Amino acid sequence: MTGDPPPRLDERFDEVFDAYFAEIRRYAAKRLGPDAAADVAAQTFLEAFRQRRRYDPKRGSVRTWLYGIATKVVGRHQRAEIRALRASARLGPGRHTEEYAERVDSRVSAQGLRGELAGAIAALPRGQRDVLLLVALADLSHDEVAAALGISYGTVGSRLNRARTKLRKALGGTNPMRTLEEQHG
Predict the structure, then answer these.
(1) Secondary structure of 94-163 in the HEC alphabet?
(2) What one-character DSSP code corresponds to residue 173?
(3) What does the DSSP 8-state code read for residue 2?
(4) CA-CA distance, 158 to 168, in Å (whole number)?
(5) pLDDT for 12-24, tens place per residue?
(6) Can you give the pTM of this predicted structure?
(7) pLDDT tens, position by position, 50-96
């Protein structure tokens, strides 16, 4: 070790972009669909670049910080997201229900959601929806969600519990997240 301080985020932002752009884009695609994903990811990195001097490694990793920014950008697209989920709820299951059921186990996305699940997610308060989707789609831990959203660990747990309870109730007692949770631990 040379004793030199580690490089600052603003000195290595290109590395951050290269390391996380695709991951943030996938998260945005799962939240809003593929059409908005690139725009949301680009906006996330633009805002991150503008705020790079404010990044505090004591609050969480760069990855967690980026998910926090991405979630805020997605939040700005919330009205479109809710409209899409409600439209999906009105459509009900697609023509190829069996094929869809097989894909659900491997991928949950705003575009792939159908019927009652989409409506139930759209009906969740924003905070609960953000926590649920960061856990389900980005596979963030409770600590990472807390850091990304700037909330306490306990708030993450309570919002996630409330969201799951509301989803189960809306879906007649079934748990659509069970398979996903088993896959992701």
Answers:
(1) CCCHHHHHHHHCCCCCCCCCCHHHHHHHHHCCHHHHHHHHHHHHHCCCHHHHHHHHCCCHHHHHHHHHHH
(2) T
(3) -
(4) 15
(5) 888 999 999 999 9
(6) 0.65
(7) 998 888 889 889 999 999 999 999 888 867 667 777 777 777 655 44
